Each structure stands twice: as structure tokens, then as C-alpha cells.
Amino acid sequence: MESQVSGVGRRRAPGWRHLVSAVLAFGLAFGGAMAGAAEGAVGKKPSTADHTKFKELAGPFTSGEEVTKACLSCHTEASKQLMGTRHWTWEYTNPDTGQKLGKKTMLNGFCIGDTSNEAFCNSCHIGYGWEDASFDFKNENKVDCLVCHSSGDYVKPAGMAGNVPTVRTESPMGSGKFYGPIDLAKASQQVGKTSTENCGTCHYYGGGGDGVKHGDLDSSLNNADKDLDVHMASKAKGGQGFTCSTCHQSDGHVISGSRIQMTAADPHGPNVRGDKDARATSTCQSCHGDKPHTQHPMNMQVLNSHSDKLACQACHVPEFARGGVPTKMTWDWSKAGLKDANGKPYVTKDEHGHAIYDSRKGTFGLGQDVVPDYVWFNGKVTYTLQTDTIDPSGVVKINTFGGSPNEPGARIWPVKRFQGKQPYDTEYNKLLVPHTATPDDSAYWYNFDWPKALKAGAEATGASYSGKYGFVDTEMLWPITHMVAPKEQAVPCIECHTKDGRMGTLTGIYLPGRDSNKWIDWIGWLAVLGTIGGTMVHAGLRIFTKPKGTQEKHHD
Q: DSSP letters along 133-147, please?
């Protein structure tokens, strides 16, 4: 959606008010133009601090912790603030369900779980050195300031527990991939506000690769054009030039917006940030309000009425994975472990160079330009955890979206429906977290031994393991909210209002064009026939009652 202020409820001003409005509009436009010209002449406001001049950042630094210690000499409260956030703790108690969530406990159908694989997975943690349960969450110097604020050459390779290579390092060992050395002094002097690239370093690459998890978050957004995302495209490309923090604003390092506890419906007007009553949300309505359409009055009322049942994203994100980066739609772990003719693990790629089979992980199904599925969603999500008993006779839902048609707080949301097949204990009927990534004799990626890998994972997570395992079908929903298309490319009405349309299987709502009711149909046809009949009668009366004297005279 374009940024608009709703005109609902405004009355047409008397004629004399138009003159006043025009004068005011001219004055505001002239003043705005002058202000813009002045700003253009001065240029972008510079930072109040040049970090290259701080002696504390001159280095040399031998570790990330030394950089953080230097940062805290000025930003004294930053680490304390971060330590109270989910970005740091990776755990959170959901007030709706009481479940303890976060990456420490949650499962998925991609890499399945973090515990026992910390050294590999925790390159995306905003800290240094979390490789096992002994990590000190209270050590302020362990907070990584640079991963969010450096614009320099700063990399945290997988397999190093979130540390940075200060010498040239091969990671993983034997892979032939080398990183570093990172010049930490240079990186610390190139700090500023967070950028899209900073956030994307982790949020694009979750699940083992670019675009794997979310479907609406991948590296194509770093250089998006307007057709991909009207907000994140640069102004030079016709977009708004947003970064992630434009919507996901922070207060004391607490960042608004979360897929764990979402705001599914926000039936309020635009949210002016900074107001004392401002809502700490990152919804579409935060800027656009819940009545955003300002077209012709008839269309405006029809379109704005849709917001009572539809999330904005349902119309304004027509497809996801539109930027040329495919997203994983399926992942079958049961097919992992195959070897080539030489007894070696291998990777098979499609015609575009994307992996569709990996001996370490199994088979993948990829998707681009994917039409979402649609579900009723009230913002409440329940997760299947490792402690929960499952029913392996059907598809196990890793997460369940709450919501029904009659709930005022529920809306129709677009989702990515991810389907997996992953290990579970066949005696206890519980999902298992395998130890896969950290190089040792029990890691599946290195020994291809499921019993060893599952036993090691169970011991690390504190789960019971009978020694008997199988693979169960799973499903996980991912809400789609990025990659907002221009308003001209919103989902056409006919794609929903038809029997085989996008919402063909969605229940709980009457969709004209998709649904039928004999009484409504009869009334509709009677109205149509009545209109046609009335028009014909009126035309006939006009013809037969027209005075002869008014007939046109024709001359040769």
C-alpha cells in the first residue's frame, strides 16, 4: 500500500473554504519546497560523532569482546538493555499460552533445533562464544555491537560460535572455505545506525541459506526495486527507502514486531511515533491506519470494508519469493545419507544452481513467485515442543495459528505452508533434535549415523530417547508480511471472487463469485431482471409518448 491518510468521514467544505484551503495548501507546499531545498543544499545531516577519531577504537583488537568493552566506555547501558531482549536470551514465555519459546526450545522443519549445534547455529546470535550450555549470559563484553552497527567488512562464519576470525581461518575445517582476518579496529570505526544488510545477515539466512525459512525475507531486499517491495526500494527506484528499523522501531534495544507474538489485527488509525499514546507496533496500520483507501467514494468504501476481515498483506503481497531467490517449501530428512559411487556424500543442484538434494540434509522442494495459502489468524500461535507428545499417524503441526471467522481480532492472513519430514522417537512419540553440525564423532553431517546423532541430541536437550526412531510428516506456517507490491499490482478481485480462486478452500466467509446461496442468487437475478425490465419500459414510454412536433425534419 502507498502511504495515504484516510479520508473517511470528511465532509465537502463550503465554497469559501476551498479558497482558504488552496491558500494554505500553497503556503505549505511553498514552505516545504523551500525547506527541502535548504536541506538539499546542506546535505544529509552528519553524525555527531566521528568514530575514526576515538582513541578507544584505534586498536589493535584481538577479539570481539575487546571491541565491546571499548564501546561500553561510552555507551554504558547498551549491553544491559540488550541482555533483556529476546535477541540475546533466545527464550521467551508466551503470555497467551505459557509456553517457553525462543531458539533455545523451539523446533522447526529446517535445521530442526539449536541445542547441541550451538557452535554452528549461533553465528546468528548477537554475542560472542556461545558454543554450549556454559555460555555466560551475564558477561556484558560478550554482547556483539558490531553485528548490528558496523557497515564494514564484518563476518561471523558458521561454526565459530559467534566469534569473528582475527586470523585467516578455515571454517568448517576441511571445507576449503577461509575467512578473515577481520580488522576489528576498522569495523569498530565504521559504525552507525542499523541497516537492512545488518538485519539481513541473520534474518535472511535462517535455516541454512538465503531465503530458506520465511519466503518474504531474502538478500534480494538489499537492493530491491519498487515491484519487489515499495517500502524497501530506494527512493531513486521509486520506493520509500525504508530500512528494517523504519517499521521495526526500537526502544532501549527492544525491537517491535515478532513472529512468535504477532499483532494480527490493528483496527486503529495511523500511529504517530513519539506520541504519548503511540502503539508499540510494526503493523501496516501503524502508518496507514485501518481505513487506508482514498479512491473514488464507492471503491473506497468497498476496499476499506475488506480490512474488517483481511490483513493488508492478503491483497498487497500477491506472491512471495519474488526477488529471484527461491525459498524452501519442503524438506525431507528421511532421504539423507545417500552416497555416490565412490562412497562419498554429494549435492545435486537444479538448472539454476540451487541444491535440491544434499547427503547431509535430504531432499528439498523450492519455490519462487509462490502464491500464499490463506488462514484465519488472531495473532496467537501454539508450538509443538520437544516435550509434547505427537500423533505420528497424521501430519504433525509444528505450529498452529489461532483464529476463527467470528473473532473480532482475527483476519485472513497469507502464509507460507512449509512441509517437512523429520525424526521422532517411535516409542515415546516425541520429536527429536539431532546433533548434526558441530564436527565430532556423533554429528550426523560427519558420520551419517542417525542413532548416534539422535542420542547425542537427546542428551544435550535433556530429552528421553528410546533408541527407536522414524520420520514423521510435519507442517509449519510462516506469516507473509514483507515484499509489499505497488498498489497497482495488488491481488485482482477476480483471483479471490471465483470458485477456483486463491481462497477457494477458506471457510467461514461468504465470497461473492465463489459461493452461492439460492435465495441470494434469486434475489440478485430478480434485481437484474427488474432493472432490465424497468429500463425497457421506461424507454418504450419515452418513444411512444414523444410529441410528433418534436420529430426532426429532414431535408433533401
A: TT--TT-GGGB-SHH
Residue 150 β-bridge partners = 191
What H or E segment, with its residue span, contains residue 377? strand 373-377
Distance CA(274)–CA(397), nearest Å, equals 40
Quick one: pLDDT at residue 4?
A: 35
Is-contact 487 316, C-beta < 8 A? yes
Mean pLDDT value across residues 185-199: 94
The rounded distance, in Å, linking the Cα atoms of 487 and 316 is 7
Query: In angstroms, rounded to a whole number, what is the distance separating the alpha carbons of residues 146 and 64?
Result: 8
CB atoms within 10 A of CB 224: 22
Q: Output phi, psi for 308, to 5 deg.
A: -75, -20
CA 439 vs CA 111, 123, 222, 295: distances in Å: 16, 15, 33, 60
| Cβ-based burial of 408 (10 A; exposed 0-12, middle 13-18, buried ≥19) | exposed
Q: CB neighbours of 343 closer than 8 A, spacing ≥ 6?
A: none
Please name the residues in contact with 307: beta carbons below 8 A apart, sequence gap of 6 or more. 267, 290, 291, 292
Contacts of 436 (CB under 8 A, 6+ apart): 111, 112, 117, 120, 360, 443, 444, 445, 453, 457
Summarised one tens digit per residue, pLDDT across range 533-554 is: 888 887 777 777 766 655 544 4
Residue 167 and residue 181: Cα distance in Å, rounded?
Answer: 4
How does pLDDT run across 276-289, given as a tens digit for each residue? 666 778 899 988 99
Helix (H) or strand (E) holding 231, with range, is none
Contact yes or no for 160/169 (Cβ under 8 A): yes
- Kindly give, in sequence order, each residue whose CB lies less than 8 Å from that of residue 58, ignoring residues fewer than 6 positions away: 185
User: How many degrees, rounded to 5, is the angle at CA 143 between CA 139 and CA 146?
Assistant: 155
Using alpha carbons only, give the angle 98, 102, 107 rounded to the nearest 5 degrees: 100
